[in-house]
Structures are given as C-alpha cells and as structure tokens.
Amino acid sequence: MSKIIRIGTRDSQLAMWQAKTVQSQLERLGHKTVLVPIKSTGDLVLDKPLYEMGITGVFTKTLDVAMLNGSIDIAVHSLKDVPTILPKGIVQAAVLKRGNVNDTLVFKHNEEFLSAREAIVATGSLRRRAQWLNRYPTHTIVGLRGNVNSRLEKLEQNEDWDAAIFAGAGLGRLNLTPENSINLHWMIPAPAQGAVMVTALEADEETCAICAEINHEETQICTTIEREFLNRLEGGCTAPIGALAYIKDEEVNFKAILLSTDGSKKIEVAKVEPLGKHEELAEFCADYIIGKGGKVLIDELTQGDKITNIYSTKKLTNDQVANFHEAVVPQSSDAIKINPNRLSKSIIRNEIENVIITSQNAVEALLTNFSATELQFKNIYCVGRKTKRMVEKRIGKVKHYEQYAKDLANYLVEYIEGTEVTYFCSNLRLDTLPDLLTEHNIKVNEVEAYQTKFDAEKIEADLDGVMFYSPSTVQSFLKQNKAKGIAFCIGETTAKEARKYYKDVRVAKVPLVESVVALVNAYYSA
C-alpha cells in the first residue's frame, strides 16, 4: 500500500500502547503508518463515574467523528468500550489476540479486609460495583476515574481506602501490576474485556483487507458472542452486565451475569455449545436472562429517575416497549383478568349453525373446556383479525369477520344463513351486537364463556396519557385512578367509553396494540 495508514487513538498511556501494538503488527507486514492521538470526552471528564455520564461510547465517539471526517484511516479501541452498534459507514476491521480477561483487585495492605464487615473499595465501573456488593453487601464502593497511573496514585493517597479494582489487561500491558494484587476469577468481566479492536471505513476496502491480516479469529468469535449478548439485553457499555466466552476442546463456553445497580439482585446463565454450532448461543442466553426478570432490571437502569408518563392497561411485550418514542417512559400491566367459565357439554352436543366469537379470550375459554374436534360449528363469524387467525389455526375456518362488532352485526343482518346465532362472550360484553341482531329478529343465544374481572393498578405518577384496549380496561382503570391526560384508544368502541370521562380521546387507525403505540409516538413527535 503506497499511502500511510493514519492510526487514530486516544492519547492515554494505555490507548497509546494499544495503538502502537497495532502499528507494530501492520508495519511488520510492510505497511507504513503514523499515529494520530486524539483526546476523548471520557478523558476530559474525570469527576464523574462513567455510568453517571449517561452516554455510551464516551471513549469512541471522538475517533468515530475523526474517521468519518477523513482525519484518520483506522481507529484503535479497547473493545469493551465500544458500543455494540457502530456508526453507519464504520466497521470492525480486526480484533487482536485477547489479553488477560480478568478484573484485578489491588489492595493497600493485605487481603484481610475481605472478611471485614466494613471496607472501602474503589471502582468507576457499575458492573464491578454491582458484583462486589453482591458478594460483599456491607462494603462501601467509592468512585474512581482517570488513567491507570492516576488511579493507582489515588488508591495510595486515600488512607481510608482498602482496595481498588482494575482491568488486569491494562495493568499488565503497562507493566504496572503490583505485587499486592489478585485476579478476581469469580467476577465476570465486561463483554470483550481484554480485547483490542480496529475500526475502519466500510467503503475503504483496501484498508479493511489489510487489517484483516492481523485479525485473531478465536478472539473475534468469543467477543462477537459477548457483544451480541450485550446488545440483546439492550445494555450500554456501563450497564451492570458481565459476559465471557472462551473456546476449549472445540467447544464454546459462555457465562454471563446481570445485576441490579446495588448488587442485591443477580441473574446468571452458563451454556456450552460445539464450535461451529454456536451461532444462537448469545440469543439463547440473553432470552434466558430476560425471561428470569432481566428486562425489569434493564428498565430500572435505563429509566433511572425518569417518571412514568404513559400507562398501558395491557401488559406490553419487549418489542412493543422498544417502539416507543424516546420521550416515553412507559409502565404497563393488565387492567383486567380473564377467567374461563366451566361450560356444559350440552352446549356443543349438536352442530351449531352460526357461531359468533368476538375475542381471543373466548377462543381460549372454548379450548379450555373442549377439544377442537368437539367444536362442530358450521359457520363461524369473528370480530378482529387476530381473533380470526386464532380461530382458523385452532378451531376451523371463519366464514366472515369484521374489525368491529357493529360492522359484523350489520353484515349478519344482511347475509346470515338462518335466524339464530350462538354468541360466546364475556360477563362484561357490550350490547351493540346482540341488540342489533335482536332488533332484526335474529335470536341470540348467549353463552358466557369467560369472566372479565377488574384488576387495575393505582398509578401514582402524573400521566400524560393512558392506553386503552377495550371498554372494560377503561372501566377497570378508573376504578383505581382519575381520568387525567389523553386517552389513547385501540378503536371506536373503546373510545366511546373513554369519552364519558376524558376530554382528549384519540383513536388508532388500525385496531392493534402497535397502532396505539404509534398514536402515542405521534403525540410526542408533534
């Protein structure tokens, strides 16, 4: 390559060591290079722990900008400091062979303080803080920032400190590992800890190809798993998340941890997969952590002191929550509980000519009492696309469906075969459909398939709005709370009930939860 490769790096001693290592490996391959030191925000702001600064990529953004501006060709980072999603146009070009993955405890005098009830340990890492307090809950953690040398000096200068925690790789690379130190093998490191990463512009194919020559494949495999796990947990670089993958005997071993910020709660996972069949390892372990309550812990961290401003009367999925506008701090729970009733076999003894099902709850109630083969329905009519899909998947073909009960009633008045229907409904069903049919001399045999019970929470926050999905969710919520803010409704039937209490009622264009989320987002985007 004729041009000189400009290597961007932070100007700290450790960052320069990393950059010079990359420089040495590239020059050994015959490439000309030059170092371009750049000071980052993380180096300039030393009076706050990283997790209090509220941003990820605090050590990498300045280098990203320099690369996108054309000031440097590649950038060298500690991989654990790099956000899991790189800026558009920038790619991971290489990962060097990994160093010491462990955290290292440097103590002032001896290790006896570990058994003491009270001790003071210094660290600027939320992950280290949480794991230490989980193991030693009566100890006190104090913040510690700065480069490796200054942190060692602060430990020495503070007489009341007992120890401080460092990345073992950083100490080792600068030949600063004190004799009075031990590796904390029990502490799970940060994802990609001990690894050095090189980034380049995606469009610069020549530079990317050159960097690939110094890539260490085993380290790449392991750190990719760890970072995918971190990404799937939606944790930033400063979240209390630890993850470590290593390869042994052609197997990928993975262990990870998520903690509450004070260390009082801990969720762990460990799994082994054959090398080459490890593609879903990170996803499996992240889903396990989330399923064990990890989502709640992550939300606590990311929301911090923010106050809930939108409440959903239906429990939202992780994907639905992720779709909210950044200004939304949501809270959700089911405002109604559904209990299927016990139904007599006599109801379905003979084939029923016309059946109406207006909710997925009715489908579940039927299948709780009967097998699909027992449900001999000639014509099935539904309300809602999701109800239709569930019926056709689990019971049989739907003859016709509409999005709203009133529209279905009008259709049946015009086109029904016969003059009688069986309506599987709730104890809180609306009058619209049966009243319309009865007015047109169609007999409605109501079967109360399930009970709808009010179970709303009392919400202390001063809400901007509430998301409603049925008239019963409106009624349930208002049993415990006052009508304040905006009512975001899934459809007109729900909106009709909400207008009895709310001045500002907004209706989704399509009767889906996602459409109600979009309605909320439109309010915050206006």
UniProtKB/TrEMBL annotation:
Domain (Tetrapyrrole biosynthesis uroporphyrinogen III synthase) ranges: 336-517
Keyword tags: Porphyrin biosynthesis, Transferase
UniProt domain Porphobilinogen deaminase N-terminal: residue ranges: 5-207
Catalysed reactions listed for this entry: 4 porphobilinogen + H2O = hydroxymethylbilane + 4 NH4(+)
The protein's annotated pathway: Porphyrin-containing compound metabolism; protoporphyrin-IX biosynthesis; coproporphyrinogen-III from 5-aminolevulinate: step 2/4
Domain Porphobilinogen deaminase C-terminal per the UniProt entry, residue ranges: 221-285
EC number: 2.5.1.61
Pfam families per the UniProt record, alphabetical: HEM4, Porphobil_deam, Porphobil_deamC
Reported cofactor(s): dipyrromethane
Gene3D superfamilies: 3.40.50.10090, Periplasmic binding protein-like II (3.40.190.10), Porphobilinogen deaminase, C-terminal domain (3.30.160.40)
A GO cellular component entry from the record: cytoplasm
A GO MF label: hydroxymethylbilane synthase activity
Record GO biological process: heme biosynthetic process
Alphabetized InterPro entries for the sequence: 4pyrrol_syn_uPrphyn_synt_sf, 4pyrrol_synth_uPrphyn_synth, HemC, Porphobilin_deaminase_cofac_BS, Porphobilin_deaminase_N, Porphobilinogen_deaminase_C, Porphobilinogen_deaminase_C_sf
Function: Tetrapolymerization of the monopyrrole PBG into the hydroxymethylbilane pre-uroporphyrinogen in several discrete steps.
Similarity field: Belongs to the HMBS family.
Assembly: Monomer.
Official protein name in the record: Hydroxymethylbilane synthase
Organism of origin: Winogradskyella arenosi
